[in-house]
Specification:
There is one protein chain. The protein is mostly helical. It has one domain: Sodium:dicarboxylate symporter (Proton glutamate symport protein). The chain is built from 16 helices and no strands. Helix 13 runs antiparallel to helix 14. The longest helix has 33 residues. It is globular and about 60 Å long.
Length: 341
């Protein structure tokens, strides 16, 4: 819905063509840098080496009705469902943008987004139960001694996120003469909301009003920010790359440069599925492992037991990265918007 919402606002932007290319280039560069930072910190700190955690042999047996036949059409659709949804959203958004009833569609989308986020807000009531189950399962299977070694991977993800926010985004802000610290202070309420809910999307409805009140272009923000929630998830990119490094080191797997490049490409794609309710980043990690095929997912519950702690960091990083992208592209094109007839 966010993708359709963003594309539908293209008609409101005078220099839409140049903004589209700026957005694509910006999202591609930032996402690539985020993945690289995750690899750099994961390889440098080595959170998965010498953990002392004993690999537990667990066997999960699913009922036959849940078995997936890889050769069936339904299986192919299921494995690629997120890519199908994204492509369908883009097509629908373009069709709505060209329709004469475009304004009616936008009104429906506005109301739909409000209803959706009200539902999500009440779903957060069960979050403490989910967190309890995550940690309890990990401790029951691997023992309480696993928490200390796993804190290393949590710390690695946090350090990588901090380096990205104040290093990469700080450099980008300096290049475009944009005061990052002042901007972060101006959206501190939204950042706190993201931290408390562990989801970047809880601040989606209110970030528009906040940034528009700060003087950023409403038309550009309504295009950039919704798309950013699917294509500019820097926190998810960092989390998945750090988690993959942890598992590679945990299993002592030897990978070639080509393997890392292929993993880089896979993360670039699967990270786009990490936008949603809390924990969607962990699902994106599972998709990554399944696609890559060279990292076992047998002990993925190890990371699941501490995923809640990393979820806060990646949600905040996602949100800040999205907000900064809207601010910078709006700043670049603001003179054009003001001078447009």
């Amino acid at each position: 819905m966010a993708v359709i919402y963003g594309i539908c606002h293209l008609a409101d932007i005078k220099n839409a063509g140049s903004i589209v290319w700026q957005t694509i280039l910006y999202f591609f560069i930032i996402s690539s840098v985020a993945i690289s930072i995750g690899f750099i910190f994961g390889i440098a700190i080595q959170p998965g080496s010498h953990t002392g955690i004993q690999i537990v042999k667990t066997k999960v047996i699913l009922p036959s009705r849940f078995e997936i036949n890889d050769s069936s059409l339904s299986s192919v659709i299921y494995r690629n469902r997120y890519a199908i949804f994204l492509i369908a959203s883009i097509i629908i958004g373009i069709c709505m943008n060209l329709s004469k009833r475009r304004k009616s569609f936008l009104n429906i989308l506005d109301k739909g987004l409000v209803i959706f986020y009200h539902i999500i807000k009440y779903l957060y009531i069960i979050l403490p139960v989910i967190i309890f189950c995550n940690i309890a399962y990990g401790i029951s299977v691997y023992g309480i001694n696993t928490l200390l070694p796993l804190s290393k991977v949590v710390g690695t993800a946090y350090l990588a996120d901090i380096a990205f926010i104040f290093g990469v985004l700080g450099l980008v802000s300096y290049i475009f003469k944009f005061n990052l610290l002042k901007f972060l202070v101006s959206i501190k309420e939204e950042i706190i909301l993201v931290i408390t809910t562990s989801s970047s999307k809880t601040a989606f409805p209110i970030i528009f009003d906040k940034m528009e009140s700060e003087g950023y272009s409403k038309k550009i923000l309504r295009f950039i920010i919704p798309l950013g929630y699917n294509f500019n998830l820097a926190g998810a990119c960092i989390y998945i790359s750090v988690a993959c490094c942890f598992l590679i080191q945990f299993y002592n797997i030897s990978l070639s440069l080509n393997d890392y490049l292929w993993l880089f490409v896979i993360i670039s794609v699967t990270s786009k599925t990490a936008s949603g309710v809390p924990g969607s980043g962990f699902l994106a990690l599972i998709f990554t492992l399944n696609r890559f095929g060279k990292i076992p997912a047998n002990d993925i519950a190890l990371l699941y037991s501490v995923d809640r702690f990393m979820n806060e960091a990646r949600s905040v990083t996602n949100f800040i990265g999205i907000a900064v992208s809207g601010a910078i592209i709006s700043k670049i094109n603001q003179p054009v918007e003001k001078n447009a007839p």
